[in-house]
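Listing S7. Sequence submitted for prediction.
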Amino acid sequence: MTRNDVTELVVFNRMKKGITWASLAEACGKSVPWTTSALLGQHQMSPEQATTAGKMLDLPDDAVMLLQHVPYKGNEEWTTRLADDGVLTEKSAWHPWT
């Protein structure tokens, strides 16, 4: 299971069960924007937050574990697109101070 798989599962199960982002945020004790971002892969959740969300969304243990890990910041699609456009291969993109 990958982090992208978890995101897909979160989106699908939330819609299937009719759970709102606000109810997930309230249960996790965080704001709606933060909780939404965390569940979509942009923030690390505490074990308690991940377990709470996992129970509400019927997520498997592996998904709950991945919610607790520091996410890779950067969308793979955008990273690939930037590399294809030559942006990530330009020396100035990696070393703007040189």
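Caption to Listing S7: primary sequence and predicted structure tokens for the chain studied. The two ends are 40 Å apart (CA to CA). DSSP finds seven helices and no strands in the chain.
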